[in-house]
Amino acid sequence: MFAMIGSVVVLVCVLGGFLMSGGNLLLLWHPSEIIVIIGAALGAFMTSNPLKVVKASFAGAVGLFKKPRYEREDYVDILKLVYDLLVKSRKEGLLAIEADIEDPSKSAVFSKYPKVLADHHMLDFITDCLRLMVGGNLDPNELESLLEYELETHHKEAAEPAHAVQKVADALPGFGIVAAVLGIVNTMAAIEGADTATIGAKVGAALVGTFLGILVAYGFVGPIAAAMEGRAHEEGKAFEVVKMALVASVRGYPPQVAVEFARKLLFSDIRPTFADLEAHLKGKAGAK
């Protein structure tokens, strides 16, 4: 919603300023210029990116107008889930959670957290990490290094749509110039026998192409790319939280301390307080 407000502010201020200076909005309406600029940008975007990135880019742009995937309550659920699994493995041994990670949908632990269970990316990450702990003989440094590589790959893949959209934003002023040049070509072709008003209208229409290319690039597409990158970075925190808790557990820290290490990684606006998280953990422990 905040992204939509920003886009509306850009549009209102630009068009409002144009009207205040005595402009007429109809002077900016040239469908041919829009087709040249937007069509060329879309075609170049599709040419330069695989279908997976194209789909993810559109999904990411639309997702900006929705709530973030992980909010404060979701992070609390993730921390509580990891805590429950670590407590069970500490009390009953690592092999006790093998059935939970092999079929999470039938697990009594995972079933308490339906939102995590529905997030297949997060679910796969948690279960894969726990498989390494159950079946491998990795020391903490090896496990941390391996998870770092996995997170690096995840973050790079998550950032690809934003980078692709940013490249479109960088190219849009150029496509605006293309539209303007085409408009000037038409003006030159019609100059013979045309009066000053006609020539001025055609030159003005050509300049609208440059205006639209710059406005769409810096007022809409560029900010959308930046917001997509920020959203991807924020969502990556959830995976870092899981990694930190599990690595801390492998290092020998008790579950509550391991979860506290993970809590410290969260940004201040979504981080639960120590007392709040402790109350949640004790509540779940008391329910066992």
Describe the protein's architecture and organization.
The protein is an all-alpha fold and 288 residues long. The protein is built from eleven helices and no strands. The protein has one domain. Helices cover 78% and strands 0% of the residues.
Task: Provide a short characterization of the protein structure.
The protein has helices at 2-20, 31-48, 51-63, 72-92, 98-102, 114-118, 120-135, 140-189, 196-250, 255-263, 274-287.
Give the SSE layout.
Elements: H1 2-20, H2 31-48, H3 51-63, H4 72-92, H5 98-102, H6 114-118, H7 120-135, H8 140-189, H9 196-250, H10 255-263, H11 274-287
Helix pairs in contact: 1-9, 2-8, 3-8, 4-9, 4-10, 4-11, 7-9, 8-9, 9-10
Give descriptors for this structure.
288 residues, disordered C terminus
Shape category = elongated
Rounded Rg: 27 Å
Number of strands: 0
**Secondary structure: helix percent:** over 70%
- Beta-strand residue percentage: under 5%
* Distance linking N and C termini: 40 Å
Number of helices: 11
Decide which structural class fits the backbone.
mainly alpha
Q: How many strands, which pairing sense, and closed or not: the largest β-sheet? A: none
Q: How many separate domains? A: 1
The mean pLDDT is 90
What is the N-to-C succession of helices and strands? HHHHHHHHHHH
Low-confidence stretches: 284-288
